[in-house]
Structures
1.
Amino acid sequence: GASPEAAFTKTVKPYLTTDCNGCHNAKNKQANLDLEQYKTIESVRADLKVWRKVAWKLDMADMPPEKSPQPPASIGRTVLKWINAELDKAPAAGK
């Protein structure tokens, strides 16, 4: 498989741009959440509390909302798997 960094660049970041940042950006901040700010894997790793919530919303199929265009389910599962792998690697203090 690809490295976490490569997977972030190839899959996660484009998913955020296409399917999340329209509502969760610095201007709109739906649910008080700006995902647009996460441009690097380091920025994700520095804020795992937010990413636990993102993972939960993806896992429950709450995001993207029904009224929004839906990405292929396989991409959502890939992004969720990537987020969970990052969360699993986090030191206990970061969880």
2.
Amino acid sequence: ARFAVASLPGHREALESLGRYRRLIQEDSSQRQVYDVRARLPLLRVPYCFIWGGADRSAPLDPLGLGLKALCPDAPFHVVEGSGHQVQNDKPDECNRFLLQFFSSMAPEPAAV
């Protein structure tokens, strides 16, 4: 499926655009601060969790995932071994289990009758 997507018209252009974006935020501190969430993420007041692919090559567990885990120590953080960047596609059952666990912990207790 990934090969089929990579073979679509425009895929190469999209990758080149991503490369230009990455160079832009590396070279321009004004642009970098727009996308840098390190100072803002710990201020979130909504429940959230992280589900990270242990074999993610586009956003590697170390340093990115572990850096977020250190930045947000109270947020549940799950590593799905053998999964890449698209955990929901690579290991959907495991991803869904973590999501159900997370959302179930947010559900209010049923009212006593």
3.
Amino acid sequence: MSESVLRTKSKEFAKNTIFLTRKMNERKVEQTLINQLLRSGTSIGANIHEGRYAQGTKDLIAKFEIALKECYESEYWLEILCSTNCITKKEYEDFKNECVEICRMLVSSVKTLKAKL
């Protein structure tokens, strides 16, 4: 089965989140903030991937809605990290743009799936 654009983008976001959190570790950023972003940023793709094995449309919607919540949470942590100078403005903007793109795709997917019910 070919990889969907949503799965590919969320996997890339997770990998980029891991790389960013490694940099933040080197910068001696507070570990709690690093962990929060790492968990939410990698959870997006995990929930989307888990949706491949959903037990039906309602289950798939639930997985995508959880991924969407994690996406919004990631945006929050990125804002906090930027406003406290833990990440650069460029890092923030790059990650925010990726996050917004994934959020839009998830919202669209959820709307489409709900219309099928």
